[in-house]
Amino acid sequence: MLPRSGDVLHVTRAASVQFRKPILFRVIRVLDRPTYDGWLWLEGYELNAAGDAVNRRSIFVQRAGLRQVQAAPQPRPHTVRSARRPAARTPIRVG
Length: 95
Prior knowledge:
The protein is mainly beta and 95 residues long. Helix content is 0%, strand content 39%. The protein is built from no helices and five strands. The protein has strands at 8-11, 23-31, 39-47, 53-62, 66-70. Strands 4-3-2-1-5 form a five-stranded antiparallel sheet, with no helix packed on it. The protein is elongated. The protein starts with 7 loop residues before the first strand and ends in a 25-residue tail after the last strand. The mean pLDDT is 89.
């Protein structure tokens, strides 16, 4: 599973030994840094029990150790707006 922006992940020791105490993590983005095979750099927010962001972090984790708690909402389809008519320009009198 490759995380997407907006995903909420449960990050445990299975993802990296630094997470002896598991955290909830909302992904901002997957960083494009060179890593070992199967590892990722993630940027996002550590969440408290209420789901509020408490700390912005970059974490280095194994992809296989991540568990998705909540998927990011699906992007809304692009709406096509009708073409606008250009505004009528008229000269104004100054002075």
